[in-house]
Amino acid sequence: MNIREANLNDISSIAKVTVDTWKTAYRGIIDDTYLDNLCYEEREKGWRLFPFHNSFVYVFEEESQIVGFAAAGPERTSNPVYQGELYAIYVYSSHQNKGIGSALFRSVMKKFEESGVYSIMLWVLSDSPYRRFYELHRGQTVDSTMLEMDGFKSEITSYGWLDIRGAL
């Protein structure tokens, strides 16, 4: 098991994990046409704009291949209760239920704690079966709203941890 902080050389692999996991995890939740049109190159461009200067990404490698990642940083909605935000956590479906997601989650929480950030939140598609993952890690439902993205709408739900030390 090798978890490490990502660097710019990992962007192509992170983009691939993003696209491939979206196509499997969100099929039937997000518009199929949108998912079918996702491409590695566009996601790679997006990841090149990621604010690594004040945020961070951890990758999980298996046999020198990135099979999952987690991205986090400052909370982005100006919520006064939460300091940090887990932006994304994705693991290839072939590598799920092996503790990789939990290991990435713990790495993010540890980094936040070391930085003096103790309250975090995240947003997840309300129809996602992966919400259970956050509940297992003691996340509490905070809010929900509608997300409009490329011509379709989907409800999203936020989970929060007022003190992440309870999630470790």
Helix content: 25-40%
| CATH homologous superfamily label | Gcn5-related N-acetyltransferase (GNAT)
- Counted beta strands: 7
The major sheet is characterized as:
7 strands, mixed
Major beta sheet, strand line-up: 1-2-3-4-5-7-6
| CATH C-level category | Alpha Beta
The separation of the N and C termini measures 18 Å
Low-confidence stretches: none
CATH-assigned fold name: Aminopeptidase
Rounded to the nearest angstrom, the radius of gyration is 15 Å
| Count of the domains | 1
- Overall average pLDDT: 94
Walkthrough of the structure:
- It is built from five helices and seven strands, in the order βαααβββαβαββ.
- With 168 residues, it is an alpha+beta fold.
- It has one domain (2-120): Aminopeptidase (3-Layer(aba) Sandwich), CATH 3.40.630.30.
- Strands 1-2-3-4-5-7-6 form a seven-stranded mixed sheet, with helices on both faces.
- Strand 4 (84-91), helix 4 (100-114) and strand 5 (120-125) form a beta-alpha-beta unit.
- Helix 1 (11-25) packs across helix 3.
- The chain is globular.
- The two termini are 18 Å apart.
